[in-house]
Protein backbone atom coordinates (compact mmCIF):
# COMPACT_ATOMS: atom_id res chain seq x y z
CA UNK A 1 0.00 0.00 0.00
CA UNK A 2 1.29 3.41 -0.95
CA UNK A 3 -0.11 6.13 1.28
CA UNK A 4 -0.31 9.83 0.53
CA UNK A 5 -1.97 12.92 1.94
CA UNK A 6 -3.44 15.77 -0.02
CA UNK A 7 -4.32 19.13 1.46
CA UNK A 8 -6.90 21.37 -0.24
CA UNK A 9 -7.85 24.96 0.44
CA UNK A 10 -11.40 25.52 -0.75
CA UNK A 11 -13.43 28.67 -1.27
CA UNK A 12 -15.76 28.32 1.71
CA UNK A 13 -16.65 25.85 4.44
CA UNK A 14 -19.87 27.12 5.96
CA UNK A 15 -20.81 25.33 9.14
CA UNK A 16 -21.09 21.79 10.40
CA UNK A 17 -23.34 20.78 7.51
CA UNK A 18 -20.55 21.48 5.00
CA UNK A 19 -18.02 19.62 7.15
CA UNK A 20 -20.30 16.58 7.36
CA UNK A 21 -21.08 16.71 3.63
CA UNK A 22 -17.39 16.85 2.71
CA UNK A 23 -16.46 13.99 5.01
CA UNK A 24 -19.31 11.82 3.77
CA UNK A 25 -18.63 12.56 0.09
CA UNK A 26 -14.87 11.97 0.27
CA UNK A 27 -15.10 8.91 2.55
CA UNK A 28 -17.24 7.28 -0.15
CA UNK A 29 -14.26 7.14 -2.53
CA UNK A 30 -12.41 3.78 -2.55
CA UNK A 31 -8.97 4.14 -1.00
CA UNK A 32 -9.73 7.16 1.20
CA UNK A 33 -8.41 6.42 4.69
CA UNK A 34 -9.39 9.60 6.55
CA UNK A 35 -10.79 13.07 5.97
CA UNK A 36 -10.26 16.09 8.20
CA UNK A 37 -11.93 19.46 7.62
CA UNK A 38 -10.92 22.70 9.32
CA UNK A 39 -13.84 25.08 9.04
CA UNK A 40 -11.94 28.15 10.26
CA UNK A 41 -9.16 27.87 7.63
CA UNK A 42 -11.24 26.30 4.80
CA UNK A 43 -8.75 23.42 4.61
CA UNK A 44 -9.44 19.79 3.86
CA UNK A 45 -6.88 17.04 4.51
CA UNK A 46 -7.33 13.60 2.94
CA UNK A 47 -5.17 10.56 3.69
CA UNK A 48 -5.52 7.91 1.01
CA UNK A 49 -4.13 4.75 -0.54
CA UNK A 50 -2.78 5.69 -3.99
CA UNK A 51 -3.65 2.25 -5.35
CA UNK A 52 -7.33 2.93 -4.60
CA UNK A 53 -7.82 6.54 -5.68
CA UNK A 54 -5.82 9.31 -7.35
CA UNK A 55 -5.56 12.97 -6.36
CA UNK A 56 -7.47 14.14 -9.45
CA UNK A 57 -10.47 12.02 -8.44
CA UNK A 58 -10.48 13.44 -4.92
CA UNK A 59 -10.37 17.00 -6.28
CA UNK A 60 -13.11 16.23 -8.78
CA UNK A 61 -15.32 14.87 -5.99
CA UNK A 62 -14.88 18.11 -4.01
CA UNK A 63 -15.77 20.16 -7.07
CA UNK A 64 -18.84 18.03 -7.78
CA UNK A 65 -19.99 18.77 -4.23
CA UNK A 66 -19.82 22.49 -5.06
CA UNK A 67 -16.45 23.56 -3.62
CA UNK A 68 -13.91 25.56 -5.59
CA UNK A 69 -10.34 24.42 -4.98
CA UNK A 70 -8.05 27.41 -4.42
CA UNK A 71 -4.86 25.49 -3.59
CA UNK A 72 -3.65 21.93 -3.10
CA UNK A 73 -0.51 20.24 -1.81
CA UNK A 74 0.39 16.54 -2.02
CA UNK A 75 2.68 14.58 0.33
CA UNK A 76 3.72 11.02 -0.46
CA UNK A 77 4.58 8.75 2.46
CA UNK A 78 7.20 6.01 2.44
CA UNK A 79 6.19 2.91 4.36
Chart the SSEs and their pairings:
Layout: E1 3-10, H1 15-27, E2 32-38, E3 43-49, H2 55-64, E4 69-76
Fraction of residues in H or I helices: 25-40%
Examine the coordinates and then state which fold CATH places here, giving the name of the CATH topology.
Alpha-Beta Plaits
Give the number of DSSP strands: 4
Strand content: 35-45%
Radius of gyration: 12 Å
Contiguous low-pLDDT stretches (5 residues minimum) are: none
Q: How would you write the strand order of the largest sheet?
A: 2-3-1-4
Q: What number of domains?
A: 1
Mean of all residue-level pLDDT scores: 92
- The number of helical segments is 2
Briefly note the structural class of the backbone.
Answer: alpha+beta
Q: Would you identify the CATH architecture?
A: 2-Layer Sandwich
How would you spell out the order of helices and strands? EHEEHE
What CATH first level would be assigned? Alpha Beta
Shape: globular
For the termini, the CA-CA separation is 8 Å
What's the main sheet like? 4 strands, antiparallel
Domain HMA: 10-68
GO molecular function: metal ion binding
InterPro entries: HMA_dom, HMA_dom_sf
Protein name: Heavy-metal-associated domain-containing protein
Describe the 3D structure.
With 79 residues, the protein is an alpha+beta fold. It has one domain: Alpha-Beta Plaits. Helices cover 29% and strands 38% of the residues. It is built from two helices and four strands. The mean pLDDT is 92.
